[in-house]
Design brief:
The chain is an alpha+beta fold. The protein has one domain. The protein is 23% helix and 13% strand. A two-stranded antiparallel ribbon has the order 1-4. The protein has a two-stranded antiparallel ribbon with strand order 2-3. The longest helix is centred in the N-terminal third of the chain and has 21 residues. It is globular, with a radius of gyration of 17 Å. About 17% of the residues have low confidence. It binds FE2/S2 (inorganic) cluster (FES). The site of FE2/S2 (inorganic) cluster (FES) has 12 residues, from loops.
C-alpha cells in the first residue's frame, strides 16, 4: 500500500531527527571534550546484579562510585547521562570501566586496546 506523500515525508523527517539525535548522543573515545567520557579504570568491574533492580551505569567516567553513577556528570560532563538498566535475572556481570565499550554497560574487551592501556586514568582516550 503506497504511503501518502505527506505521511511519507513526515515519517522520513521523524526518522532523520531520531538518527541525528542518536549520532549526537553517541559516545566515542575519539576526541577530547566534555562530551566525551574519561577513563575511570583500564579494566571492567565485576558486580553481582539483582533481578529487577534498577541500576545506573556511569557513562562519563567521573563517578566516585564506579561503575555506577553518583551524579558527577551533571557538573563534569553535562552532555553525558548515565545508562539505566534493569537485569531480568540475577547474574554476575563485568561492567565497563574504561567507558569505551561498544556494548554498554558491559565490557566488550575494548579496554585491552592500546588507546586505552596507554592513556592516563581520568583522561580522554585518543583512538
Ligand atoms: S572495561 Fe571498558 S571495554 Fe572492558
Amino acid at each position: 500500500m503506497p504511503v501518502p506523500w505527506r505521511t511519507g515525508r513526515l515519517l522520513s523527517s521523524v526518522a532523520g531527527s531520531f538518527a541525528r539525535r542518536l549520532r549526537s548522543q553517541r559516545r566515542t573515545c575519539s576526541t577530547a571534550s566534555t562530551a566525551q567520557p574519561v577513563i575511570a579504570a583500564k579494566e571492567p568491574f565485576r558486580v553481582d546484579l539483582e533481578a529487577g533492580k534498577r541500576y545506573a551505569w556511569c557513562a562519563c567516567g567521573h563517578s566516585k562510585k564506579q561503575p555506577f553513577c553518583d551524579g558527577s556528570h551533571k557538573k563534569a560532563a553535562p552532555r553525558i547521562s548515565s545508562l539505566k538498566f534493569k537485569p531480568e535475572e540475577a547474574k554476575e556481570a563485568w561492567l565497563c570501566g574504561c567507558k569505551c565499550t561498544r556494548n554498554p554497560p558491559y565490557c566488550d574487551g575494548t579496554h585491552k586496546e592500546d588507546f586505552v592501556q596507554k592513556a592516563e586514568l581520568g583522561s580522554h582516550p585518543q583512538s
